[in-house]
Amino acid sequence: MGLILERKFHNYMPPRGYMVDHGKLNEDMARNHLSREQVMRNTLNGKYNMPIPDFLKPYHKNA
After folding, report:
1. pLDDT of residue 13
2. Cα–Cα distance between 57 and 51 in angstroms, integer?
3. Among 49, 43, 48, 46, which residue's Cα sits nearest to residue 7?
4. Given this model, what pLDDT does residue 63 score?
5. From 62's CA, which of 15, 21, 26, 54 has a CA 20 to 30 Å away?
C-alpha cells in the first residue's frame, strides 16, 4: 500500500478485534489483476478485514 502515490489514501483502521489481511490484499493485486483504486476501495469497504488470531491478541493494538 505504500506505492500508492497519486491519490491521498486515508489511514484505515478496521473495527475492534479485526485486522487487515495484507496477504489477501496483495493476492488481489497480483493474481486477480485488480487496480490500486479497486484495492483501496475494497480496503475501505472492509473486504480484507479478518479476526485477529488468538496468538496475536497480546501484541495487537486493536485487539
Report:
1. 87
2. 10
3. 43
4. 75
5. 26
Rg (CA), the chain: 13
Q: The dihedral of CA 41, 42, 45, 48: what is its sign?
A: negative
Rounded to whole angstroms, the Cα distance separating 31 from 48 reads 15
The model's pTM is 0.74
Longest dimension (CA), the chain: 37
Backbone angles phi, psi at 19, to 5 degrees: -140, 165
Task: Dig out the grid coordinates for 63 from the structure.
Answer: 485487539
The answer to whether 48 and 25 are in contact (CB under 8 A) is yes
